[in-house]
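(Deposited chain)
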Amino acid sequence: MNKSVIVPVYNEEGNIGNLIDKINLYLNDNDELIVVNDGSTDNTEIEAKSKKCNLISLERNSGKGFAMRRGIEIAKGNLIIFMGGDGQDDPKEINILIDEINKGNDYVIGSRFLINQDSENRYSSKAILPVNEFGNKSITFIINLLFKKKITDSQSEFKCFVSEKLKKLNLECNRFEIETELLIKSFRKNFKIKEVPVHRYERKHGISKLFNVPFGRFLFGLKVLKTILKGYIFWR
């Protein structure tokens, strides 16, 4: 099956070029790499233009969710893979996700927190800040409680979908809460979901765009809780 890798990116100068090179090592001639530049104000666009990818540049910053939805619209692959633009995910693990799709799953999550059989430590406190890990696990606990699931990493951005299934979800979120929307709507559509353990590495340049705003964590938490409540009551 041919695949489309979608990378939403905002102000990742110094990270995106190297990431594109790494992803292309694991793509075939029939695959595509879609980089959606979400109105970056640094040299992200210039860096990506010099690399092998389908670069889509949005005129203004509209949010990670909007960028992901734009990528889904144009993706042609049988499989759609999402990766963050900060270089913290490892492209060589793309095939681990695809292997589980080939076993009949519709949606495979690259989990940073799924316990590995060999107890390998796959991330450091610099790759995932303790406060972010606590927030993620708290959100995941609420989701599992309400929807009676056993997910370990609800906010993972490294994931793989069967394209035909994904394109039927009618996504609407524009910001980071799209990760929660993807998960809940996949529950509602009875997707076969599988988690696999993946690594998470410290970013080389810049800082996270999610929390680099006043009260960023608090506002993100409110938006996610609102999305969970909406999904629990209205999405069927």
Residues 130-147 form the longest helix (18 residues). The mean pLDDT is 93. The beta strands are 3-9, 32-38, 54-58, 79-82, 107-111, 159-162, 193-197.
